[in-house]
Amino acid sequence: MLETSARLLKLLSLLQSPRDWSGAALAAELGVGVRTVRRDVEKLRNLGYPVDAVPGLAGYRLGAGAALPPLLLDDEEAVAVAIGLRAAATGSVTGIEESSVRALTKLEQVLPSRLRHRVKLLQDVAVTPAGGPSVQPDVLLAVAAASRDHQRLRFDYRNHDGTATTRTTEPHRLVHMGRRWYLVAWDLDRDDWRTFRLDRLEPRIPTGPRFTPREVPDQDRTERGIASGGYRYQARFLVQASAEQLTDRFAASVATVTPVDVSTTLVEAGSNSLDELALHLGLLGYPFEVQSPPELIDHVQALATRLAASVGPS
């Protein structure tokens, strides 16, 4: 006869199959009497599993409860869930990327090595939909685990101009914006919050000692760091339009919009191209003034001269 704890796990596994079980059938599967099955069912109910009685069958089925209890997955189910979570973490379904990473981190922590190998094999041969810069799943999971466990993280980082640095951080939050993954972390060398693109990051394992979490910056500051820190050029524009008119014209991953007054808005945007910055603002259809950087001011002046010359004398 199975020990009580092992019997409860087997009973739970049987009840999770999509069928109704009679008490006698469960007793036969477990090698116990029907009264023992009734007692074990009551123990599962006390643990939060919604085991419903089936009228007319003198049996049981696992129902839906107010909260999700722990699930038992066989090998095939565990691999399927891991693959699905990895796909969702890439942004294939908008709005669930971060929760998918949290769930995937928990699942991969307890996956047996034989199943990790199968997940990696399927991931390697699968075709990934085109989107933003790719992030290796191992990098995503390592950073997510360090953030969850409040462990210092050292990593090699490639800046927008290609220069390489080594950073020591206290990782706090993963953010998915504009089909890119970002890490919000306290940079110990710079003594300030920084935002890092995960596709430019290579963790150094093992992670460092645990740290006491700091108060995380609000969403506005995080978005401002993402909109400026990940690009070669950071620009400031004063646009003669209200913030409401401009908010939907910029993705949060490339620009922040701050009202100055009812008819003037400060736009802070990032890009790797001066042409892209100039054209994006020029096509808005509102008057604007370039405040910085100086090279963008020179570039816009040269571009305006070129465009004016292209149409000949009036």
> What is the succession of H and E elements?
HEHHEEHHHHEEEEEHEHEEHEH
Arrangement of strands in the largest sheet: 7-6-5-4-8
Work out the helix count: 11
Average per-residue pLDDT, rounded, comes to 80
Oligomeric grouping of the chains: single chain
Radius of gyration: 28 Å
The span between the termini is 98 Å
Strand content: 15-25%
Helical residues, percent: 40-55%
Rough outline = elongated
Number of distinct beta strands: 12
The stretches of 5 or more residues where confidence is low (pLDDT under 50) are 125-130
Described by strand count, sense and barrel closure, the largest sheet is:
5 strands, antiparallel
Classify the secondary structure makeup into a structural class: alpha+beta
Map the helices and strands.
Layout: H1 4-15, E1 21-22, H2 23-30, H3 34-46, E2 51-54, E3 59-62, H4 75-92, H5 97-110, H6 113-125, H7 137-149, E4 153-158, E5 164-177, E6 180-187, E7 192-197, E8 201-204, H8 219-229, E9 233-239, H9 243-246, E10 255-261, E11 264-271, H10 274-282, E12 288-292, H11 294-310
Antiparallel strand pairs: 1-3, 2-3, 4-5, 4-8, 5-6, 6-7, 9-11, 9-12, 10-11
Helix pairs in contact: 1-3, 2-3, 4-5, 4-6, 5-7, 10-11
